Amino acid sequence: MTRSFYSSAIVFAAIYTVLILFKSILYLILGIQASNLPSIGGWFTFEFLTWLVWSIILLKYYHFYKHTFVFRALILSIVVSVFHFFSFLQLMQTKEILNYHIITIIGSLGAGILYAISLLSSGTGKNRWLRMAGIVLLIEGIIMTSAIIWSINSTSFMLSGTLGRIEQWVGLAGTLVPIAFIFHFLEEKKISTDKPNAGQESWVGTINFAAVIIAMGGLYFISILVLDSMDISKNARRADTHLKKIAEPFEAGIYVNNHQDTLRYRLLKPLNYDSTRQYPLVICLHGSSGSGMDNARQVVASLPVPLLSKPENRTKYPAFLFVPQCPVGATWGGIPHFPAIDSLVFEAIASLQQKLPFDTNRYYVAGNSLGGYGAWHFISTRPTLFAAAIPISGAGNTSVAKNIVDIPVWAFHGANDRNVPVIGSRVMIEAMKKAGGNPRYTEYSDKAHNIWNEVSDTPGLLQWLFAQRKK
């Protein structure tokens, strides 16, 4: 290979490294919000095309030096990655993970691991920089594959956040791969000649042209993404104002116990509230998007709230709506290895019960996602407190199903749910039935995690809920 080829390849690798580094830093700063940037789809397409050109440059190098195993492994990785790319574009549009998405992800990771092994086991493994690239790729592939399989086999949606963080750091470590190739090409350049070669000169011209296009495209997308990120910050401030406006009808409250543990909550009193009359209490548990300390966003993130707070339903089914807010990183309970605040919620309810006319025979709990776990956990650990429960897209502990056989339960789940696999609801319902219970269960065969519209349109749901009383 000529020196000019190596020079062009080094420049291209440097540009590619900058692009990977920028994306990794962007995701570390914005987290999951980066996926909501308007231009992120265009960026991923641009990044994939850049990787494709980079892979073709490497194929030329491997072919010239007759590194057959590495050459074939990289071709396989390219083919599988193309399928994964188009699957990922669809995922970005639908926001729902389907079975074939998982297959393309695992296939792409598997092909990447094979390519990493080829770098270590063939002639390329004798070079320290290519060996380092292979080691980094292998570690990345093993970590991501293990994390994906771990999340698939778990019913805990909390792992999705962990998986995202792993992906962010693995992506940042991925910048070491093109850097290793840069150092390798620098060493190769020192011992190479620059004899005229028509075939290689055309390659050099093509690489240089691609480098210019990629550099210009990179500057464009980086500037667009930076502007979009600034817009997200502005929109977040507007959203906070909007959230506070939505939460206004709900009285803001803070409960602090003797240990200074603090629970923020919102409380909506019954329409035409009469302090001489007793009312049911509905505990509305939000999903993970409602976690925080602002004491507002949980009202929107608790999916039962919009249905229960409609004027016509407040007229027909007057009740107190209690909407606590879970801190980030904590849970309502029922998810192993994560801190739970269920006891604090019960303490706050007991405190409010001394001041407000709650009908203690009609305590209900309803929750979605994180709140679905909470609904199962609340009735399992305090079965004598509740008259009914509506767990949505959640999971529970089957070993304590015998405790809740007398509690009316109506659970809901989407069969294609990848955030919280449907098996979580199925096994709980089956365990209740085996223990002698008679729970209701509605499963949507064509739906994934977002099923609230279907749940809220369920005929007779509120009529069923408010008809329940403790036995």
Automatic annotation (TrEMBL):
Keywords from the UniProt entry: Membrane, Signal, Transmembrane, Transmembrane helix
Superkingdom per UniProt: Bacteria
Residue stretches spanning the membrane: 9-30, 42-62, 69-91, 97-117, 129-149, 169-186, 207-227
Coiled coil spans: none
Key word Cell membrane present: no
Signal peptide: none
Cell membrane is among the record's keywords: no
InterPro entries: AB_hydrolase_fold, Plant_Biomass_Hydrol_Est
Protein name per Swiss-Prot or TrEMBL: Peptidase
